[in-house]
Write a structure and sequence with these properties.
By secondary structure, the chain is α+β, with helices and mostly antiparallel strands. The protein is built from ten helices and four strands; from the N terminus they run αααββααααββααα. Helix 2 packs across helix 4.
């Protein structure tokens, strides 16, 4: 018995210091820029809840509602719970698996089978058996198969958590952009309505002058066509308003009744919303590596790396400790008496000998999947730098576009006044007036679109940066996550002695 205990203790020590056959993880390297180029210095850092810098309480309320009720986010939260549960399942194999069983059985034996004779007084053709057993088994993880599988599952868990953070950023950005689209449609509606009313008044005057013979039918028909142009634009803008409100309602996770009946509350007008400053000069280029989608992609590489260790371990023996204790008796009354007790223990081992390449192909599949995850990670980093370059250029240039349209609208308004005055005094024809009004109308509509594009460019910078930037040493836009804490919360299990895994 002493030898057996010593053997179990030695095996236990070896299992706790089991080797790992997973490759050493190394993050893929890139040639990184030292700092951003062509950026204007900003005076204040952009908060992680970047939408508050637009200083629009209605926008803040909408984004908070979307983050709380959006169904895509509800789905990603459920994925986190599922991944945490799977990690809990993976941690359970580190502990002995104990099960209990009970059985009662009666049997009548045949007297016609070979070598059977129940005529002997000591033998009975009928017999029964009862048993109550506890069995335990524990697989010794000499080659790190279970530990690597657990690491893989926790890496997948981290991927789902960071993917949720990326989804939150995306939902916030979509809500802001759709809100700006709604405000732009409102502004185009106002412009079209104002232009339509002005042209209707002008048409009434021109109709009277046409009936009196002061103007030609050509001028009158052109005035009528100008009215219809403004009215068509007004109705098209009204459609855009409805579409934007419906899209916002879905992002906010509202009920079907609210989607149909409830309108979206507006705050500040499109022209009153500020555009936060662009990225500060000299920002380190590794900032993008904090983006949740990039970190999520890296955890998939880690998971694939650990899975290679699982696949390699399949080539080596599997060793398990087994044990059983309980009672067995032919009578229920004697089942729990001392002589009915029974127990057993042992060590079981198995090793693959001929599997026709199954384990080899499984290993090659694991290695290929790691290559896939590395390529996906590299693409995510490349896309991130592409996004930020385009977003910064868009923010810088859309500001200049807005200024150009402001000057253009101001000049065209003055041109309409001059053309109308000249026409009233007979110095020009009505076509000149219509051309000036048409150019002004088009410029005002384009100005509304430019204002929307400028705000969208700000959102694009925030999204490309993974939620904005902070002062040095500040907390990143996504939370620091303790994997084991999540597993304990979701499953009630925690791996003893495991190291905490955190991501920043």
């Amino acid at each position: 018995m002493l030898f057996t205990r010593l053997l179990v203790g030695i095996v236990l020590c070896f299992s706790l210091v089991s080797c790992s056959l997973a490759p050493k993880y190394e993050r893929p390297q890139f040639v990184m820029p030292k700092e951003w180029k062509n950026v204007n210095p900003g005076t204040a850092p952009l908060n992680t809840n970047w939408w508050v810098r637009f200083r629009d309480p209605a926008l803040v309320a909408l984004i908070e509602e979307a983050l709380a009720k959006n169904q895509d986010l509800a789905k990603s939260l459920a994925n986190i719970r599922s991944a945490a549960a799977q990690a809990g399942v993976g941690s359970s194999v580190f502990f002995p698996q104990v099960s209990g069983s009970a059985e009662a059985q009666g049997q009548l034996a045949s007297n016609r089978t070979a070598n059977t004779n129940f005529d002997t007084p000591t033998l009975s053709q009928e017999y029964s058996s009862h048993q109550a057993l506890f069995t335990a088994s524990w697989e010794l993880d000499f080659f790190g198969k279970n530990r690597n599988n657990y690491i893989m599952l926790t890496d997948v868990l981290m991927n789902t958590v960071l993917s949720h953070e990326a989804s939150r950023l995306s939902v916030a950005a979509q809500t802001a952009e759709t809100y700006f689209q709604l405000l732009s449609a409102d502004m185009r509606c106002d412009i079209s309505k104002r232009t339509l009313e002005t042209r209707k008044k002008g048409l009434a005057i021109y109709t009277s002058r046409y009936e009196q013979g002061d103007i030609t039918e050509l001028d009158w028909q052109r005035a009528r066509a100008a009215v219809e142009t403004a009215e068509a634009q007004y109705h098209q803008s009204a459609i855009d308003v409805e579409r934007a409100e419906a899209a916002l309602a879905v992002l906010l996770g509202r009920s079907p009744r609210d989607i149909i009946e409830k309108s979206v509350k507006r705050g500040r007008g499109l022209m009153q919303l500020p555009a936060p400053p662009v990225l500060p000069a000299g920002l380190p280029s590794d900032l993008l590596l904090r983006r949740p989608d990039i970190r999520a992609a890296e955890f998939l590489i880690m998971a694939s790396n650990a899975n290679i260790g699982v696949a390699r371990a399949q080539f080596f023996p599997t060793i398990s400790l087994t044990g059983m204790t309980g009672s067995m008796s032919s009578s229920v009354n004697k089942l729990f008496s001392g002589p009915a007790g029974t127990w057993s223990y042992g060590i079981q081992g198995s090793i693959p000998i001929l599997d026709w390449g199954r384990n080899w192909y499984a290993l090659k599949d694991a290695e290929a999947r790691k290559d896939v995850s590395i390529a996906a990670y590299r693409k995510a980093v490349q896309s991130a730098f592409s996004d930020i370059r385009a977003a910064l250029a868009s923010q810088r240039e859309t500001e200049r576009v807005v200024k150009s349209f402001e000057r253009q609208v101001s000049s065209l308004r003055r041109a309409v006044e001059i053309a109308s005055l000249q026409y009233d005094n007979g110095y020009t024809d009505y076509l000149t007036v219509l051309d000036a009004e048409r150019e002004l109308f088009s410029a005002e509509l384009s100005y509304a679109q430019a204002l929307q594009n400028r705000l969208n460019a700000v959102v694009g910078v925030c999204q490309a940066l993974g939620g904005g930037w902070e002062d040095k040493g500040a907390r990143p836009s996504f939370p620091i996550i303790d994997t084991n804490e999540l597993i304990t919360k979701e499953t009630g299990q925690k791996l003893p002695g495991s190291t905490e895994k955190k991501t920043r």
